[in-house]
Amino acid sequence: MTSSPRQPTALRRSILILAFAVYLALLAWVVLWKLEVPWIGDAARLVRPIKLVPFVPSGDAGASTPIEMLINLVLFLPFGLFLGALAPSWTWVKAGAAALGASLVLETVQHLISTGSFDTTDLIVNTDGALIGWGVFALVRRAAGERTSVVMSRVCIAVSALALVAATAFVVSPLHYGPQRDIVVERSTSLP
């Protein structure tokens, strides 16, 4: 008995969706809790400033470090790859909007639960990372032609598997990001 040509495509898409779900779960865990045990900070009920001016220090918030921006760029690159694989008919504008929306949700949640602060630099860099991933997809589509779906599925599944292995290795290793702490901005109450 032979299988219809639609079954492998449907199976590949299902596996790709599962791999995307794994990636999104890991992305949320990294952004919100830095691969530590999930927690909610005591400052979650406090009003805290939001950094609206990107790339430079503003108010009590310092500028994002180059390594932090590079990490955010790399973390969101697979987002663009997955969008290309799952929605190849989308334009880069639609992919960028989806990445911006996902980044906005993560920044808002980390601010609300006090595991990080809202920073517009992260929104920009995360979206750029996803757009770079989308650009890689566009290059693969140009080079692979009709095999793009197969190639991108394999790349995305490999990326999720590698991310899962890296996260597991980090969790079981003695290395850790740092102590869990509330993100609270200290303000001086005395006037100059």
Automatic annotation (TrEMBL):
Q: What region holds the VanZ-like domain?
A: 20-140
Q: Where are the transmembrane segments?
A: 15-33, 69-87, 151-172
| Keywords noted in UniProt | Membrane, Transmembrane, Transmembrane helix
InterPro entries (alphabetical): Teicoplanin_resist-assoc (IPR053150), VanZ-like (IPR006976)
Q: Does the UniProt entry include the keyword Repressor?
A: no
The name this protein carries in UniProt is Glycopeptide antibiotics resistance protein
Organism field? Microbacterium kyungheense
